[in-house]
Amino acid sequence: MNQTQMLRSVSRTFALSIEQLPPILRDAISVSYLLLRVSDCLEDHETLPPERKSDLLRLWASVLDASAPVTQLTDQITDLDGSDPEVYVAQHAARVLQMLRELPQAIQDSIVARVAKTSRGMARWQDHGPFVADEGEMDDYMHEVAGRVGYLLTDIFAWYSPVIRARHDELMPLSRQYGLALQTVNVLRGMRKDYERGWVFVPRTFYERFGLTRDSLFDPNHIDAAMQVVTLLADKADQHLRHGIAYVSAFPRHQHRIRLACMWPLFFAVRTLAVSRDNVDVLRTEAKIGRDQVRSIIRQTTLFGWSNRWLERYYDHLARPPGRSAPPAAPPAVLVPTSR
After folding, report:
1. Could you tell me which of 33, 68, 72, 175 has the fewest CB atoms within 10 Å of its CB?
2. Is there a single domain that holds both residue 282 and residue 229?
3. pLDDT at 36 over 70
4. Helix/strand/coil percent split, the chain, to 5
């Protein structure tokens, strides 16, 4: 597989965002994403025990730091099923590293540093174990797996654009919130799947407030109490997502493709959150948005996403749960540019 094929094999939605970027940004973020998918594979693979996961993640970080050869990693994962696209990328980490070396040196260093720190953070959480005590621990986990990814995106955009570079310090805390926003929605929509593989990322303080345990949270006999926990998670996700709007809005309007690359995953998450609220499917299986909704978000934001005022209105439009006065097909368009 080439770079584009690898990217599309492991992500449909992120590929949409990445592929519409200017070529050098597309290459840098594609490579970054593939490197992170190696980390994700080592963290999430269902057959690997936690001790092996943490060892492999630390080894991968050492490979990135050039203190270990990549073959030392790939030789240790030949037993995994390469028909899984994520495993395929991990088993071909040498090819991804070659793609990295084809990028300008200035951006290589940032990519390596951020992905290595993320991998070591994932290893630390494998050592920690499959439970989260409170919201602070949840945020710590999400920072390691997603907040640092927000930092990496900002590094790459700042390297590309002098205007964004001048706003780097302003953007960094917002980029962490952007990463936490996407990850909180991932935690919410993946609750059942995570539980089935032994992990519960919902803070213990959230479900114990309603007299639940990590097991009874998914017991149909306790559905009313469990849905109150879902509401707590949804409210937390909404807080992070609204910071994500501030992150997108901080990019200059003339960098429309960069804005789109950030707003598409954000708005997909906003709508996913809306369909997850009051939806017992998040406890039984998973709540998803349809392809028609994805296409609608892409179309609307491409036309009107240059306006920060419109973005705020569109957020409210998408955040409305389906059963609560469902919004019309498209919100009113802002046709006159504003200074916001």
Report:
1. 72
2. yes
3. yes
4. 75, 0, 25
143 plus 196 within the same structural domain: yes
- Residue 45 placed within a domain: yes
**Which residues touch 49 (CB under 8 Å, ≥6 apart)?**
none
Give the least confident one: 71-75, 153-157, 208-212, 318-322. Answer: 318-322
SS3 letters across 20-83: CCCHHHHHHHHHHHHHHHHHHHHHHCCCCCHHHHHHHHHHHHHHHCCCCCHHHHHHHHCCCCCC
Q: Which domain holds residue 80?
A: 1-113
pLDDT at 332 over 60: no
Residues 61 and 201 in one domain: no
Among residues 113, 142, 169, the one where a domain terminates is 113
List CB contacts of 273: < 8 A, sequence separation 6 or more.
185, 188, 234, 237, 238, 241, 319
How far, in Å, are 84, 114, 134, 255 from residue 92 at the CA level? 12, 20, 37, 33
Shared domain for 168 and 302, answered yes or no, is yes
The token duo for 216 is 């009874």
Q: How many domains does the chain have?
A: 2
Same domain, 218 and 171: yes
Q: Answer whether residue 326 shows pLDDT above 60.
A: no
- Whether 255 and 142 map to the same domain: the answer is yes
Q: Is residue 119 part of a domain?
A: no
pLDDT in tens, 111-151: 999 999 999 999 999 999 999 999 999 999 999 999 999 99
For residues 153 and 104, state if they share a domain. no
Give the span between the Cα atoms of 248 and 171, in whole angstroms: 9
Cut 0.70: pTM above it = yes
- CB distance 74 to 63 below 8 Å: no
